[in-house]
Every structure is written in C-alpha cells, then in structure tokens.
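Deliverable D4.2, example record:
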Amino acid sequence: MLTQAPLHDVATRLAEDIRRKVIEMSASPNGVHIGGSMSIADLLAVLYGEVLRRPAGEGPSAERDYLILSKGQASAGLYAALASTGVIPEAECATYAEEGSRLGGHPMKRLPGVDFSTGALGHGLSLGLGVALAERRYGHDGRAFVILGDGELQEGSNWEAAMAASHLGADNLTAIVDRNKWQISGRTEDTMSLEPLADKWLSFGWRVLSIDGHDHDQIRQALQGPVEPGRPTAVIAHTVKARGVPGLEDTKKSHSATLDQDARLLALAALDGERA
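Output generated by the structure prediction step:
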C-alpha cells in the first residue's frame, strides 16, 4: 500500500514507499545494502510506476518488459518496489535475509517479479541482451532494462555485452548505470577510474544519456522517450549513495548496514521532512 503524496504522481509516492521499506528492512541483523538500494529508489519508482509493462516475472508474453537488477546487492530496493506494487506481500519484507526467506541478499528467481537470479556482478547486461534479442526474434516489442552499478563496470564481461549489443543493433535494450561513484572498496575513481564514462559507451556504439537519477522528469524522458533505431541506450544516472539517510549519504559505511531503532526513526523523519 503506497503512502500519501501527490495523487497525480505515482512515482513520487512509490519512491517514498520504497525508501521507507528499505529503512525498515535495515533492522535485519544481517545488514542491508542501504546505499545502493536508496540510490536507485527513484529509478525503480519510475520504472515500476510508469514505464514497465507487466514486469512482475509473469513469463513470456508479447506485451511485457523486463527489468534485470544486475547490481543484485541492492536487492532490498527491488523487494521494496515489488511489495509496494503488490507483487509480493508487504509483510514479507520483514523476513529479509532470514533463514528460509525468499528475500535473499541477492535476488533469486524463485521470487515473483524476478526473472533471473543476479548478484554475480558483470552478468546482468549479457542477460539483458539475450532477452532483447529473444524479444526481437519472436516478434515481440518488449524492452529489456538493466540496472548496473558503476563499480560493476570494471568487469570486462559488461563491455563484451556492450560491444555485441551495438553490433547486433539491440535498440530495445537500455542499460541504466547507477553512477553513485562508490563501490565496496571505496570511491570508484580511486579504485579504478571509469571516466570519461559517457565517452566509453559512445565508443562502443551506444546512444548515451546523462541524467540526474533522482529527478523523475529526467528519468521519464530517458526511459519513455523514443529509442534510436539500431542503437542500444545507456542512461548514466548520477545519484547519491544512501540518499535520504542522515549520516550515511555519500559514504562508504552505507554499503551494508544495520540501523538501530533510533537511526531508523531519524531516517524516517528525514524522509518526512523531505516530503514536506
């Protein structure tokens, strides 16, 4: 059930609900990847609220789109989106990472709404390309969207997929890079520089859009706009790790964290203040 916000904007309500659920899941003693889950909350909200057609793992169909969370460590954000849109029970979020739960630290295919188990970084874009090519082969007009972490782009398999996607003209494939500039070992640019990132995608033959990954209008325009025939699209979404969580925004310590009750209340109050 979505919390209250402007009724004309489904994505606004959904983004707020996703963030609240991620904070609530952070009570798990196993920790939640708060940083990466919160940085993609707005991307997930626009995708699930306004862009994707029948995205909830309903099997092959001529009228559906696919979302692959390649950065599987941000599974809490995905679970929150699935719960907020009625795909899984909201109460199930309380079982995050517990023994026997369907909500693992990385998404598993056994969960409704998940087409592929992910989290072995560097594989998601290849999966998305396979889906995009299959949709074209069977005469469907479905699109494949892949959310990638920026640190994940240090995996060479991504660039093999990028080269193949361009060569094969997979214009129904969109790669969304969560450019929050952090990875588990620290700043991406300190670990292994990715810049100039847009130029890298362009050199592989992709259409490239750079956006504010928290601005819903920019996200809509990037994901709903017409594709360029014969070219896949890379959306570089500039985001803030752990956006909305006091003390964790844009820090390494937000990678995996368990918030105590006081910290959760403070984070929820910050979200309320942001909405006001």
